[in-house]
Structure formats: C-alpha cells, structure tokens
Fold:
Amino acid sequence: MHPDNPQPRLIKQAAEALLSGELLAYPTDSGYALGCLLSNRDAVEKLRRLRGVGVKHPFTLLCHSISEASQYCLLNDQIFRIFKEFTPGPYTFIVPATKKVPKPAQGLKRKEVGIRIPEYPIVSALLQALGTPILSTTLWLADDEEPISCPTEIAHKTKGEVDLILDGGTSNDNPSTVVDLLGSKPIVIRAGLGDISPFE
Structure:
C-alpha cells in the first residue's frame, strides 16, 4: 500500500475487513498498531492475547477527527484547545469518557479513555472510510522487548492471528506520547514520538 497516497481499492478492502470482524495490523504516525471494531469481542480477545494483557488493560480509540472524538470523550475548553493544537499527531490523550465508550477502551475506573487522532495517510483514509473509531494498541507482542516495525516480521510473529496487514513499508518503532488531561494540568505518562516540551 502506498504510504503517502493509499489506493482507495485497498482502503475499501481494509474497511470491509474491519466491518466483518477481522483484526488488522496497520501503520500510523507512530509505528504499526493492531486494531479492530469496538463491538467485536472475538477480535478484542485476540488482540489481548497477542499483547499479553488482561481485561483491565485499556485500549485506545483511534478517531478521524475532533468531531468524532467528541462522541467518546468530554471536551472542556482546555482539552479542546490541546486537541486543536496537537492533533492530528503522534499523541494519545487520556480524557474523561462518555457513556458511549465500550469497556475495553475504558480505564480502570471506567471513566476515562485514550484518544488518538493520527496523522498518517493510510490510517487516516481507513478511519474516514469506516466512519467509526478503531479500538487500537501499539503492535507490541507479549514476548517482545520492543514494538514491531516491519510488515514481514509482523506476518511471521503473529502466525495468522492477524487477519490483514496493511503494508506501508518499515516504520519507526517509537510509540505515541501519552498525556493525561484528566486534571487541571497535563501530565506526561509516556514520552514517545510526540514532543513533550509543551506539557512540561
């Protein structure tokens, strides 16, 4: 798949795969990720098994726009300003969740959610074609010491557990920067590809 101008035919095929309940691997602005639809329990369980995480581990919602994200998180003035300035981009923001957020994407207290609005042509086109968020996590397998950045290695290590791999070439293996926006001041939870200096 062309990394800068993804073919509409292939994007449509990937969207149809997600809608039919499949688990996908795809490139983002901060490396490869695993994702499925919010409502597909079998794919979510497969995702948990690959990551080696339990039911209390929250996943992220990848959204196409702030407007779409606003359906799943409560946007006060501060959060909206930060979203406007830093999305799309390599950040995951921990924000208050709405009742529309499914349990697999909620934090331990069931009141928070991680939101990503990525800046990468393939996943942006996929999200636009879907018209709904993707439940997502960094493609970091349970027994590995770092994320996988090569599609060939993804295919080899997942051994058929992933239904479709969107090959956008080798990517960086630096995950998104995670920033907690639940309090009065932003708190950097994980330093990644996104610049942390605006939040220090």
Observations:
- The helical segments are 8-19, 41-51, 66-69, 77-86, 121-130, 151-158.
- The mean pLDDT is 90.
- Residues 30 and 71 are 24 Å apart (CA to CA).
